[in-house]
Design a protein that fits this description.
The protein has ten helices and 19 strands. The protein has about 525 residues and is α+β, with helices and mostly antiparallel strands. It has a five-stranded mixed sheet with strand order 2-1-10-5-6. Bound molecules: ligand MTE and molybdenum atom. The site of molybdenum atom (MO) has 6 residues, from loops. This is DMSO/TMAO reductase YedYZ, molybdopterin-dependent catalytic subunit.
């Protein structure tokens, strides 16, 4: 015997394969948790097997194991995966690269299984692709180290050295990588799987939830609110294209039956309300445009939806804020906080809602399920707390919100702004009649006038669509007889208070961008 005992080498190669498989599954689960919890290759392949297995096998399994059939499937899959992994490890050690190719093929099967699921998107492929790539990397590293160790053993036996053997260092480096990867991938994978299972479970509850109809319905969207121009942003934003901004790495999974909101702090009477109780209250609908303070001039961190919820002012009234309080610190289950002026939330003329519905659906998980705040006229970071669980009545002098501690203003009223949607910035259009159109907003004040300037011309009044309300953005359009050449188009809005947007560009930090959205177009 001149090298490592063959039995031991095979065993360690097999172990390398198993650890590569654990790394594959662990990283795939981690990616799935972010991309789409249901895209886990483990679930996808399992579901594919259930679909493919002939009926008599299913019947037999159910006859033998009853309601444990899924568990049996998972155990069988687990054993198969382990056997495959051992095989791939041994293959890679005997015929370098061949094992990696086999692992890549398994990845392809997982990708196909994932993207052919009923509600899958193409992004469901990500988790399997990343998983296979990580697995191959781990496999190659492990087998290379195993060979180095083996070669050193050969050298030791051929020409022994005094003291520590040459094989000691490679041996250690192989074992550390093997153990470290196994432990790391298990921790990450199991954590991600648990989180994904939570998201899938909460999504199921959400889908089954039926919201009550509003006691106070929103007036219908006026017919003239939607100009219906190609490329112009729709006046009501669909839930799945609504902008999303938050600090949540993992979207909180809240089972509504466990949700409650507490009103605490400077109040005569602490109040706590559960989800069922909230739904039993007379709910109100309101169409409100949310905007992010980080929206640059011309940006799209803004969206308009029909919200269903209970007026926050009513809940506050039942808690009876004490004199001296001037701020409500709303807290998300994940620790995020926003500081909203108490008087804004108490304002009789403002539909500040504890919202449960968005465009006729329960809030999507990403948009705060089961309950969030929506306040007309204030940027999201000071008002729109998602996954909200506490309203602490306090004072600006005593409490600070999440973003106030990070360089943003304590208060965040939305600034009047306007944006050109068509023609596209940098686009080309044919000479002749061209619609210049976009949106403008001055939430809770209202937009009075939108003007466009072409090149160095005069400011031209545009036609405003019918506004849904002062709490929403409004579309506008100007028909332009476009002459050939390169042109610059700028827009500015004037709000109902008579204030016209300032020309001077101002950065988003600390309290929102300012300036005129300006685009270039080529006319042929
Ligand atoms: N829990 C929580 N709520 C939050 C945030 C957050 O980071 N965490 N971000 C706020 C910000 S900055 C904005 S602009 C709005 C965005 O809401 P949306 O993602 O539903 O569009 O949510 C607000 N609510
Ligand atoms: Mo924001």
């Amino acid at each position: 015997m001149t090298d490592m005992e063959p039995r031991r080498r095979t065993l360690l190669a097999g172990a390398s394969g198993v650890v590569a498989a654990v790394a594959t599954l662990g990283s795939a689960e981690a990616v799935a948790a972010f991309v789409a919890p249901a895209s886990s290759p483990l679930l996808a392949v399992g579901s594919l097997v259930i679909d493919l297995v002939p009926g008599w096998v299913k019947d037999l399994v159910i006859a033998l194991f009853g309601t444990n059939d899924k568990l049996v499937l998972l155990i069988v899959l687990g054993v198969l995966v382990a056997a495959l992994a051992v095989g791939i490890g041994i293959l890679e050690e005997r015929r370098p690269v061949v094992g990696s190719i086999a692992l890549a093929l398994v990845g392809v099967v997982a990708v196909v299984a994932a993207i052919t699921r009923a509600d899958a998107g193409l992004d469901w492929a990500f988790s399997s692709i990343v998983g296979a790539a990580v697995g191959i990397l781990v496999l190659r590293l492990l087998v290379t180290r195993l060979r180095t160790w083996d070669d050193a053993t050969v050298a030791d036996e051929a020409r022994p050295v005094v003291g520590a053997s040459r094989a000691e260092l490679p041996r250690r480096s192989f074992l550390v990588l093997l153990g470290g990867t196994a432990v790391g991938a298990l921790v990450v994978g199991v954590g991600a799987r648990v989180a994904s299972a939570g998201a899938v479970a909460v999504e199921t509850i959400r889908k089954a939830l039926k919201l009550p109809t509003a006691a106070v319905a929103a007036p219908p969207v006026p017919a003239g609110a939607e100009l219906g121009i190609d490329g112009l942003t729709p006046v009501v934003s669909a839930n799945d294209s609504f902008y999303r901004i938050d600090t949540a790495l993992q979207v909180p999974n809240i089972d509504p039956s466990t949700w409650s909101l507490k009103i605490t702090g400077m109040v005569e009477q602490e109040v706590e309300i559960g989800f069922e109780e909230l739904l039993a209250l007379p709910l109100q609908e309101s169409i409100i445009t949310l905007t992010c303070v980080s929206n640059p001039v011309g940006g799209d961190l803004i969206g308009n939806a029909l919200w269903l919820g209970y007026p926050i002012r009513e809940l506050l009234a039942s808690a009876k804020p004490k004199a001296g309080a001037d701020m409500v610190l709303s807290r998300s289950i994940d620790g995020f906080t926003a500081g909203t002026p108490l008087e804004v939330l108490q304002d009789e003329d403002r539909d500040s809602l504890l919202a449960v519905g968005m465009n006729g659906q329960p809030l999507p998980l990403q948009h705060g399920f089961p309950v969030r705040m929506v306040v007309p006229g204030l940027y999201g970071y000071v008002s729109a707390t998602k996954w909200v669980v506490e309203l602490e009545v306090t004072r600006y002098a005593d409490a600070r919100a999440y973003w106030t501690d990070r360089g943003w203003s304590e208060r965040g009223p939305i600034k009047t702004e306007s944006r050109i949607d068509v023609p596209r910035n940098g686009g080309r259009v044919a000479a002749g009649n061209v619609a210049i159109a976009g949106v403008a907003w001055a939430q809770h004040t209202g937009v009075n006038r939108v003007q466009v300037r072409i090149d160095d011309g005069d400011w031209l009044d545009t036609t405003l669509a019918t506004a849904i309300s002062d709490d929403t953005w409004v579309q506008w359009v100007l028909q332009w007889d476009a002459p050939a050449g390169d042109h610059t188009i700028a827009v500015r809005a004037t709000d109902a208070a008579g204030k016209t947007q300032s020309e001077t560009p101002v950065d988003v930090v600390p309290d929102g961008a300012e300036g005129w959205h300006t685009i270039s177009v080529g006319v042929d």
